[in-house]
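Take a careful look at the protein record below. Let me know whether the C-alpha cells fit the sequence:
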Amino acid sequence: MTQPKETLLVWVAWPEKCFSVNAADAAYLRTLVGDSADVVVVKSEREFLRELPRATKAIVWSFKAEWFVHAPRLKLLATPGAGRELVPRTAPAGVTIHFGRFHGPIMAETVAGFMLAWARGFFRPERSEFWPRVALSDKCYRVAGTKAVILGYGLIGRAIGGKLMQLGVSVAGFHRANMRDLPAALADADWLICALPGDTATDNLVNEQLLHKLPQRAVLVNVGRGNAVDERALLDALRAKRLAGAYLDVFRGEPSPVRKGEPVIYGAEYGHLPWNLIRMPHTCAFSNDYMRRAFKELKDDGLI
C-alpha cells in the first residue's frame, strides 16, 4: 500500500519582514524539499489549524501545546527562533521539536559592527559639532588588542567570540561551569558581552556588584535577553561615569511597559538617557537571508 505523501506545513508570518516567508523563501524551500513532501505555506492561525491535521512536519513561530491533539500525523515541529518562549519544550511521543541554531554568525556581525563603530567614534556626542575633527582625534582606537568577556558561551557566544578573534580581540568565554573565574576576568575587560538565555537563572546577573568589577573604559553589550541586566544599576553606572558605554539590543519586558519601579530604557526619549547608552529594538539577528538560513539548517540536519 502506498504511503501518503508527507506534508510540510509552514506558518511563518511575522511583522518583521525578514522573519516572514516571502515568495522567494517559499521557492527556495520547495527546491530543498524536492518531491519528498508537499509544501503548504499559510498566512494565518486559522489557515494553519485547518491544515494541521494532515501535516507531517511544521515550521512555525508559535505553537500551543493543545494543538498537538489536532496533529495526529505530526513528526516534526520546527521554529526558526532560538528562544524557547513561543513553542512547547516537550511534545508527544514521536514528535521532534527543533529550535534554530543558525543565529550566531548573524549576531556576531552585529556585535562586531557595534564595537567597530564605537571604537571609531561613530556614537560620540562631539559628532553634533561642526567638523569635529580635533574633538574626535583622541577618542578613537582599534579593537585589535582589546579584551572581550562573553557571558553565555553557547552556540551564539562562541560565534561572537570567533568573529572577534578574527579582529584581534582577546576573548574569554563564560558559562555555568567556570563562573567562579569571572571576577578576575572582568578586571581588565574592555567589553562585557551578554549572550545569555532568558531563564530565571540569569535574572539580573549583570548587577551593580558585577558592573563595579569592570574598569571605567569598559562597554556593556547585551544581545541575549533583557532580564540578564539590572537596568537601574546600568543607568547609575553610566550616569556616574563608572562605565564607558552600553549597547542594548534587548530589554526587560520588551516591548511592553516595564514593571512599576523599573527604569524606562526602551521607551525613553533619547534626551532622557545618557548619550553613551545605544539602543536597538531587538534587531541583532535581522538578515535578508534569515528564513533561507533556517530552512537550510533543517535540510542539513536531515529533518526536511
The radius of gyration is 22 Å. Residues 208 and 234 are 7 Å apart (CA to CA). The mean pLDDT is 94.
